[in-house]
Amino acid sequence: MPGDELQRYYDRNTDLFLRIGSSGSGHAIHRGLWGPGVRTGREAAGYVNALIAEEIRSFLPREPVAVLDLGCGVGGTLFSLAQTFPNARLHGVTISARQVSIARELARRQGLEERCGFTQGDFEDLQLDLRADAVIAVESFIHSSRPDRLLATCREHLVEDGVLVVVDDFLARPAPTDDPARRKTIDTFRTGWRVPGLCTLADFDAVARRAGFEPLKQQDLSGLIRTGRPRDWLVSIVSPVAQALGLMRRPFWANVVGGNALNAALRSGQVQYRMLALRPSTRDRSR
Predict the structure, then answer these.
(1) Residue spans of beta strands (DSSP E) within 85-140
(2) pLDDT (tens digit, 9 = 90+) per residue, 198-223?
(3) Average pLDDT over every residue of 216-240
(4) CB-based contacts of 203: which residues, under 8 Å, 6+ apart?
(5) Phi, psi at residue 176, to the nearest 5°?
(6) Is the pLDDT of residue 59 over 80?
(7) Geometric angle at alpha carbon 100, from 260 and 86, rounded to 5°
(8) Any idea what the Cα angle at residue 18 is, between residues 132 and 98, rounded to 5°?
């Protein structure tokens, strides 16, 4: 996907995402997870941040000194990790100028501007003067038109014994060619949410290994997503109308229609929401 199209998508939609989302002061754009003990939208938005911190602690042999978030939104995950790892410096990259502006202001308000930095850039073609102990990518891999390049960027910015944590949507199996309705659901999700990188876990694993990573752990989080909220019911009604009227050319309606397709794909099991932990391969490190 051309970077300028994705940039426009997030520049135009970010304020709306924050306004209609339920994360409040969590400043999350990613989806909420209703794990054990979660009772509010803010807690649901923060649940994945706790899972990511747990993965970092499990697989990194020390507390992180530097954390890099590729596709950081307005910084919600980084601000959470800043509290979890008080000695770490954190840096976020997003293609959206609007998101960088919001993230920097939020960091200033929280007194985190010295520890949390933000850069506008394309994470497929990125050269930062840092090597992180942990690199995270939450709902950003899927936006990549060059997954091999994104994973190469992760590897280039990760220390030799570091950990990469990816949280994203994956196809449970290749999109069916013999089921037009299901195929249309996946195609609508791809188009509406601008997610050309949607692939199976097997495809991701192959690209990751070529980029110099080996898998550590994977966890299916699909069951923690709520897809039957009243808002979802309303969206399921208006989405076919929006499609019929050709409104998917507009970023707002593209997000609505694409989100409805994603919910349908999650309910049917076509798409799974997973967290993956990876590390630089030992063979790659020995070179």
Answers:
(1) 89-94, 116-120, 132-138
(2) 999 999 999 999 999 999 999 999 99
(3) 91
(4) none
(5) -70, 135
(6) yes
(7) 100
(8) 60
- Block residue for tokens 């590390």: 279
Query: From residue 6, how far is each of 191, 250, 273 by CA, in Å?
Result: 11, 13, 21
Q: Are 68 and 152 in contact (CB under 8 A)?
A: no
CB 10 within 8 A of CB 95: yes
């994956």: which residue's tokens? Answer: 170
The residue type at 19: R
In 3D space, the residue among 188, 194, 198, 190 whose CA is nearest the CA of residue 257 turns out to be 188
Determine how many CB atoms are found less than 10 A away from the CB of residue 244. 8
Taking residue 39's Cβ as centre, other Cβ atoms within 10 Å add up to: 8
Per residue in 139-198, pLDDT tens? 999 999 889 999 999 999 999 999 999 999 999 998 777 788 889 999 999 999 999 999
HSE-up of 98 (CA within 13 Å, CB side)? 13
pTM exceeding 0.90: yes
Task: Answer positive or negative: Cα dihedral of 68, 105, 23, 253.
Answer: negative
Question: Between β-strands 132-138 and 66-70, what pairing exists: parallel, antiparallel or unpaired?
Answer: parallel
- Classify each residue of 49-76 as buried b or exposed e, where b means 16 or more C-beta atoms within 10 Å of its C-beta: bebbbebbeebbeeebebbbbbbbbbbb
* Helix (H) or strand (E) run with residue 271 in it: strand 271-280
